[in-house]
């Protein structure tokens, strides 16, 4: 008998334009970041469930009987994606031993796993034994949607194993994706995981992890854009710690202090997002040219200045922008700002040696830097040979 | 008999907020810059007129008979400040030997002098002999209103010598100023000089040179603000050459390219100017506090970002802002941008040694730097002992 195995990956997320302005009713563009989280699920014949998350040094296992005891009639009837079963969350916190208020990454990830596992299989005759291994290219806590990528992988693998959604990969394929309807379901379950981890997430991160590409986010509505190009970027983490809450509050204070000065800036950011969307649409329509890249670069520069005006810049980000501009590359912060991460646009013809030198410059500043892309596909099923060897090796080692 | 002598000074000009936006109907604040041009006029008994401008290496003299030959009936009848007597300008160009189109500083200054001299004295029985000496603390061609300060001094000294306006200085005074009506006349004659030198000036520079303080400039209307504080600043010249015309055209192009993005930025700049005006008014009303200085600093930072968005920044200006911010001081470009000059706000309690170190940092960048103030008085008559010794020495040496 063949062991049922699912290898799933989901991308991280970056904000291309509109961070902070989106809080005040403006358009933001969220993009998939091709630094991915990989999950391997093997349905096993033992009576145990193993989860191995070497990134966050979390390795746990439970007997099926223990887990079965957590399922109640309510869990079976409840099993829904519209509301969170808070009593189950409470039981799981007690079971794993995570006090209320604790937000440690490993603990939260385990809670999300157990919640989705128990909810998805609540209707099954019995809980299945399985081993999950997770490896992520994403740094955690950097605002790059690593928890959402994890939840999307979890939801996809568990729903596939349960049979609620298909396992779309055929023998001839390296990667495969799901139908629109199935992705809706994946996204809803991933959102439940995000709720457990973050409390009150916007839902943008899991949507990006599911659909990939570029999503327009406006007034609470998330719309995946059809047909957008993939763009090469450098993703840099300044590693300067920041509090998103404090930064968001700071922008609000600034609006209250100088409404006539800051409100037009938010208008301008809104127009930056819309102009960027138009430009990307034109590029994908086959007109992609250096002229379009110049526009994308100008928009990046403009928005970075606007974010500075909103007070969410940081000297580390100024340094980053200066260092990349010295190489002719344009950068902006992505996400909350005040440090954190930034994206640097690369053109299709940007020379490899120039990219290498820029990465070295950025590393010399003490930053982490990855060459990756934005606009990549969302959640995917992989054949083992389509996954980078080093990652496959990690996933196979558990 | 006592030799009639007039010592006059007028300040330069900086733009505090609103450069470029003013071209598109927004409010700008023009401020006097306490780097001054000094002029000494002595009515002599010889039959000659001497003008000595050591800054620009221009030393000329004419016989009164030569000059008298330039006065025609038209000059006498025309002598007006509403329109320029273009036939007189043409005769003066021929007389001095300046071909049409030449804009050399010395030549233009001489043209402006001769035009105002002949026009002001056209109604007199005969032209008076005199010696004028001019010394300026202002660099020329740096967008700091050096030509306007010169024209204001010229107009004031010549109108005083002719008796059209008073000579307000009494024996007990160090400095004195004129009535509002007299300043109107000074300003109109200075504007004629500016027209000769610049062709189509806005009139802001001569207004600042005349009234000093802070002027609001909006939709072609210039309004001196009552009761504004003097602010200590560093004035830095990056010495990066730029073309105001090219920069103005660049902003226009950017508005045409991204109207929905750039127009709100101009709105925001307008609000920066208005907020600054309100803050300065409050400060002069006696409420001046560190809180007000914080607002002024924030406005400077915001506007500098906006000017970058408009595309009139320059790496030299980025360096300047970074160098001063490292000392806790806030800077923005002033005027056309693309290099040129910048202002750095100093607080009343900014330490002398910190100012000294900052000036040294800026000089190490290859910039010229002056410690001065904005909002200083406009045109003044001076007693000899009220003028700095070194300047008086220069003026007396001719």
Describe the structure.
Two copies of one chain form a homodimer. With 398 residues, chain A is an alpha+beta fold. The first copy, chain A, has 13 helices and 13 strands. Chain A has two domains: 4-222 and 375-396, Ribosomal Protein S5, domain 2 (2-Layer Sandwich), CATH 3.30.230; 228-372, 2-Layer Sandwich (Alpha-Beta Plaits), CATH 3.30.70.890. In chain A, 45% of the residues lie in helices and 21% in strands. In chain A, helix 6 packs antiparallel against helix 7. The mean pLDDT of chain A is 94. The A-B interface holds A 258, 260-262, 264-265, 267-268, 271-272, 274-275, 298-299, 301-302, 305-306, 308-309, 318, 322 and B 258, 260-262, 264-265, 267-268, 271-272, 274-275, 298-299, 301-302, 305-306, 308-309, 318, 322. Chains A, B: InterPro entries: GHMP_kinase_C_dom (IPR013750), GHMP_kinase_C_sf (IPR036554), GHMP_kinase_N_dom (IPR006204), GHMP_knse_ATP-bd_CS (IPR006203), Mev_gal_kin (IPR006205), Ribosomal_Su5_D2-typ_SF (IPR020568), Ribsml_uS5_D2-typ_fold_subgr (IPR014721). Chains A, B: Catalyzes the phosphorylation of mevalonate to mevalonate 5-phosphate, a key step in isoprenoid and cholesterol biosynthesis. Chains A, B: It catalyses: (R)-mevalonate + ATP = (R)-5-phosphomevalonate + ADP + H(+). Chains A, B: This is Mevalonate kinase.
């Amino acid at each position: 008998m063949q062991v049922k195995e699912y290898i799933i990956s989901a991308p991280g997320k970056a904000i291309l334009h509109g961070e902070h302005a989106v809080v005040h009713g403006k358009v933001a563009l969220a993009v998939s970041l091709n630094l991915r989280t990989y999950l391997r699920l093997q349905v096993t014949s033992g009576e145990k469930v193993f989860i191995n998350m070497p990134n966050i040094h979390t390795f746990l296992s439970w007997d099926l009987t223990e887990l079965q005891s957590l399922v109640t009639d309510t869990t079976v009837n409840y099993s829904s994606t519209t509301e969170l079963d808070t009593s189950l969350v409470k039981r799981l916190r007690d079971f794993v031993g995570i006090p209320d208020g604790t937000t440690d990454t490993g603990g939260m990830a385990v809670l999300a796993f157990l919640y989705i596992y128990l909810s998805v299989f609540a209707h099954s005759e019995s809980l299945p034994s399985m081993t999950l291994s997770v490896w992520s290219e994403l740094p955690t806590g950097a605002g790059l949607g690593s928890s959402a990528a994890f939840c999307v992988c979890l939801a996809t693998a568990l729903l596939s194993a349960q049979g609620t959604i298909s396992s779309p990969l055929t023998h001839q394929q390296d990667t495969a994706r799901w139908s629109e309807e199935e992705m809706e379901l994946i996204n809803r379950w991933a959102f439940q995981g995000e709720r457990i981890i973050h409390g009150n997430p916007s839902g943008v991160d899991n949507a990006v992890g599911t659909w990939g590409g570029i999503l327009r986010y406006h007034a609470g509505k998330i719309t995946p854009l059809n047909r957008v190009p993939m763009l090469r970027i450098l993703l840099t983490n300044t590693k300067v710690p920041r509090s998103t809450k404090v930064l968001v509050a700071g922008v609000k204070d600034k609006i209250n202090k100088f409404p006539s000065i800051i409100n037009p800036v938010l208008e301008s950011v809104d127009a930056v997002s819309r102009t960027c969307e138009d430009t990307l649409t034109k590029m994908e329509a086959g007109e992609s040219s250096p002229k379009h890249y110049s526009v994308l670069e100008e928009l990046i520069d403009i928005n970075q200045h606007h974010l500075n005006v909103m007070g969410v810049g940081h000297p580390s980000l100024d340094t980053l922008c200066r260092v990349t501009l010295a190489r002719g590359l344009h950068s902006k912060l992505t996400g909350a700002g005040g440090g954190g991460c930034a994206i640097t646009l690369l053109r299709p013809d940007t020379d490899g040696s120039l990219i290498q030198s820029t990465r070295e410059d950025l590393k010399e500043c003490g930053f982490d830097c990855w060459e990756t892309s934005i606009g990549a596909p969302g959640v995917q099923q992989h054949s083992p040979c389509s996954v980078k060897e080093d990652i496959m090796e990690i996933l196979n080692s558990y």
